[in-house]
Amino acid sequence: MDVYEDHYEILGLPSGKNGAKITLKEITKAYKAKALLLHPDKNPFDSKAKAKFQRLKSSYDVLKDDNTRKLFDKKLSNIIAKRRKMESDLARVSS
C-alpha cells in the first residue's frame, strides 16, 4: 500500500490507541452499517460506488484478521509517532 489509509477511519471508527481497543463485534457492526450505505446496488447512479465498497471491504478484511490488524496497528502507531515528532520539530523551528 503506497498511500496511507486509516482502516478504522474508513469504517467510521476511532483510530490510534482507541481503535486498537475496539472489539471484532464492534468492527463487524460498523462494517455492516457502512456496507448498507455504500453497496453498489444501493447507489446505482454513483460511478464510484463499487470502488468505495471495495475500499470498505478491504479495510474490514484488514481489521477482522488478528494478524493483519496487529500489523496495521503497529504501522499506524509508527505513523502517529513520526507525525508528532515532525510537528514538534516544526514548532521548535518556527519559534
Automatic annotation (TrEMBL):
Residues 6-76 form the J domain. CDD domains: DnaJ. This is J domain-containing protein. The lineage of its organism: Eukaryota, Viridiplantae, Streptophyta, Embryophyta, Tracheophyta. It comes from the Eukaryota. Signal peptide: none annotated.
